[in-house]
């Protein structure tokens, strides 16, 4: 049964590290640091999580914790750690997703799950396209290369654009299949404006044109 949680929960602000840190993906690391500080000759990592060893759902749930829309917790805040399953910590239905009801900012995982690429793959995760250890923003060539690695002759469906044009698109599959869209959740009032201007963010619903 879910743990009874009184709201709001109280936390010691002197003990909270804000932002995304290594521990978000690799789990609590105090024992890891303590062990290797005393055993520097031991190169095998101890007391740390290696996300590359996760099964598909563990990998997806780790990203969906922050990129899966609103989650109703059934356990205390911050008890979910890398390698856990969201269903054990949140009341969350990821199956009945209506793409037209998801804001482009609010639930990237939900948009990805609804994509044909994802549905027809047994292995695709967020890390198929994203490397969390690198800054990839705006690197359309890199993301497009990932698309082409699957959608090439003899492997899967290929781009329907005429062959003479394909060369010009190999560095940018993204603008057609994952275009930027206006968010209804993030808007700013620009100087001189009379109404809020929505932020434009790239959708994670991979469309089929």
Q: How does this structure look, described?
A:
- The termini are far apart.
- The protein is globular and about 60 Å long.
- The protein is built from eight helices and four strands; from the N terminus they run αααββαααααββ.
- 28% of the residues lie in helices and 9% in strands.
- By secondary structure, the protein is of the alpha+beta class.
- Strands 1-2 form a two-stranded antiparallel sheet. Strands 3-4 form a two-stranded antiparallel sheet.
- A hairpin with an 8-residue loop joins β3 and β4.
- Strand percentage lies at 5-15%
Radius of gyration: 21 Å
The description of the largest β-sheet is: 2 strands, antiparallel
Shape from CA axes? globular
> Strands of the largest sheet, in order across it?
1-2
- State the total count of DSSP E strands: 4
Number of H- or I-type helical stretches: 8
Helix-strand pattern: HHHEEHHHHHEE
Roughly how much helix do the residues carry, as a percent range?
25-40%
Instruction: Compute the average pLDDT.
Output: 87
CA(first)-CA(last) distance:
45 Å
Secondary structure class reads alpha+beta
Low-pLDDT ranges: none
In short:
With 209 residues, the chain is α+β, with helices and mostly antiparallel strands.
List the helices and strands and how they pair.
Blueprint: H1 22-26, H2 30-38, H3 56-67, E1 72-73, E2 90-91, H4 108-113, H5 116-119, H6 140-150, H7 163-169, H8 174-177, E3 180-188, E4 197-202
Antiparallel strand pairs: 1-2, 3-4
